Amino acid sequence: MSAIGLTAAGETSAAIDRWFPVARGEEVVPRHIVQAQLLGREIALWRDDNGLVNAWENRCPHRGVRLSIGLNTGTELHCRYHGWRYASGSGQCTYIPAHPGQKPAATMRVGRFGSAEAHGFVWVNLSDPAEPPMLSTPAGEQLTTLRSIYTRAPASTVAACLLRGYRFALDPTVAADSPMDAALVAGDPYTVRARVHAGQRESTVTFLLQPVSASDTVIHGLLTMHDVTADRLAVLRHHNAQMSALRDTAESA
Amino acid sequence: MRPRAESLLWDDWHAVAEFEQLSRPGRFLTTLLDVPLTLERDPKTDSVLAHAGDEPIASLRLKYGFVWVCLGDPARDIVNFPECDDPDRLLGTAGSVRVAVSGLRAVENFLDLSHLSFVHAGFLGEEPFTEVKSYSVESSPQGGVIAKGCRVYQPKASPVAREGFDVDYTYAVLRPYIVVLYKANPVEPQRRDMIALFVQPVSEESCVAHLLTCYLRHGVEAAAVRRFQQFIFGQDRPILENQLPKRLPLTAGREIPVRADVASAAYRRWLAEAGVRYGAIPAA
Amino acid sequence: MITLYDFELSADCYTVRLMMAALGVSFRRIELDVYPGREHESPGFLKINPSGQLPLIDDDGIMRCGAQAILEHLTGRHDPSGRWQPRDDPEMPARIARWLEVAGRLSATAGSARLHDTMFYAAEIDACRAGAHALFRALDEHLWFAEQSGHDWLCSAGHPTIADIACFPHVMLSEEGGVSRLPYPAIRRWTDRVKRIPHFASMPGIFNASPSRSAPT
Is the pTM of this model over 0.90? Predict the structure, then answer.
């Protein structure tokens, strides 16, 4: 287990132009708006009826009302205050009900963040959109996204707790498989890999930390399993229990 | 007491409670301009005592069913509405409501016409009648802003309205945190019903909304007026609490107005010119 | 016709209005001036209900008080489909009872925080908010795993039950008491689904759902 020291500085420097997961892709369901937050910036995350994901600044440019309480019509987001409409993709205002005959000015546009979908997550980059980095995952392995755990602790504390110890079982439905100490490696301040193996069987969880703010973090998990026959729900419950325990530890640190 | 805000606010009167709220025994706690207040009603004399910490507050009055307080030296009188003395009117209140946003945002919302067919759909407005036709805005000689000739189609303009009709509104901002609305009475259209919003600035990012209704009595039932105002304000409150930033920006930039917002643009300009900072994000 | 003694801004009263809307039950509203008038404590109302509590229904002479008791009464007497409190599954009564109990705790935490933050009600506000967050954590986890098993509702009945109606109001209005739902994405998806229940009725503070894909936009 490599111990890599993490400092608070690691979580703020140059973080503004990197990609972070903010939601599991399957949770950005149609006709819904996800309210997310990254590095203190609120995000209105929504999918149009063609499947395109939009990550917008959660603020209508008219009078600052949160877009996340608005309406997702499948092609547009409507602000709840005055009914202003914004097109998917461009974020351009298409209609101002108080002045129905007029075309809204080009300046009437929501703030947008870079967004991409990869490995079962929606990733956001708060600065100008750029190519999302690809995680190096072993080819041919089954990838499962775990339940994300909202934690009231800074990302540096969460990473430190993970590195101190995360235990999980290869297959929690098998009686012989009790939780084992994982071999833990910090990839960067926001990524920790945990691996357990017994003989030929092995399993890796990649923890991806989403710094919500200076005080809160969402822990996302990406599980690769060698054995695909394990009961998926049991595995999800197992990691949920382990990650929740880790959350409790991080919150009382 | 060291002033916590500019003189325009510190040396002025603010509503801090409905008199009715003080009928319970014991002390009523509230806050004005970041100063914690204790209010108490003397059951024998029915007078009200107010303290800021240990310091008794000298400037305290009852008017229109509210307790008014000035933390500094009152530079002028409490706002006055001659209509409220008309014998054929019913005065009412709607229960003070706390809102987690700057009171300046609450005043601006009260002035706003284009939200009526969305936030109050089916009552004060309705799609597709969303267009806000031109109206006029002028400065008031006593300070503040007046908006006239505001017209909007309302399906249920008041508790006694039986059908929809075009309503004519006049707004007057009388103080940074006080705004009043006049609308033509359905039975006597040459006279106007009045609704006043007295916003108590609790902190720069929170307030209490106190409402005063002054309607002509024609067929109006006090309880129905109160319920209607509570219903309408209950619809506004979550919008206000979802506005960011919580303080009202006074410079153009991040929030883009359109022609329908001419009254609120004038309100923000007047606040900037008057040097209001408390509850605002002033020009740099 | 059922008579409901009611206050527009009360989440517990809204719970009953929502249930009756979902059941398609007509009712007559007698609205009391609870705030600031405290009419529920007046001699006139205390004669009708000595406990002074709302909501209260008078169903053809049968009086029931409190959101949960009324919900049980309504589904017992006015739900010919039997879907809102299913009795065919032996596990269901226990599941529903568990969520009704949670609804009671939501009222005491999130509900009290809202009354404190809006209408000056006395409450231990920090404890109320912390209690609400603890309940929301458990609720979010439950709903997430329900979704993973193909269930959209609190009880795995394949359709909403009184468990969903009982818990929804205090969850949906939680932000009025300073309890944000940003950390609870599964709860946020569930509240959207509740809003799409046929004949859903709203109240001030609750916005309607986005149009669903099957509905014309």
Answer: yes
